[in-house]
# Entry
Amino acid sequence: MKKIFSVIAVCLATSAVAAEQVLTCKLGPRPSQHVAVVRDLKIASTYIYYLQYGKVRTPFFGSLDNSRGAMVNAQCVGKTQRALIVSGEFTANALQGFAITYFADSDRPDRLDFAEKNRPMRFYVAPHEMLIVVATGGLGETGGKYLAYRHVAGRSEQDEAQGMNELPSSSGFDVFNLHAR
# Structure
C-alpha cells in the first residue's frame, strides 16, 4: 500500500510542476504590450514552448506537437520598436523561428515565420515593416549569400523571402545583430 501511495505522490508532484517562464519582452512602441516565452512538459532535452499574452497561452506553432523544441534561442531586441525573435529545433529539418512585434497602429501582434539551416543574424524593424536576415553562404535555394524574410504590417499573406548577395540597406530601419547561441 505504501508503494502505491509513493507512486501516486511522485506522479502528482511531477504533473504539478509549473511551467517555466523563459523570457518576457516588451513589444512594439507602447510599453504596455508584452509577451512571455514559457515552456513545460519536458521530455529528454525538449520542451513544449508557448507565447503568453497576459493569461492567454498559445503553443508557438499552433499545436503541442509542432511546438516541442530543443536548442531554443529567444531574444528581445529593439529600442522604440521592440520585438521578440525566436529560433530553435522544432519539427522541420531546419531551424524554425519567428519574429513578433506590435506595429504603431495595431492592437494585434504581427508575426514573421522562417525556417533555415542557420539562425538569423540580423533583424531590421521600421514603423510598419520587419526583416529577418539569415546568412546562407550561397548554399540556399536562391544561391545568394543571405536570405531576407520580409513582413509588412497587417499583410502576413504577402510575406516573402528574397535571396541577396549583400545585406539589405538599413535606410529607414533600426538594425540589430542577433546572438547565434
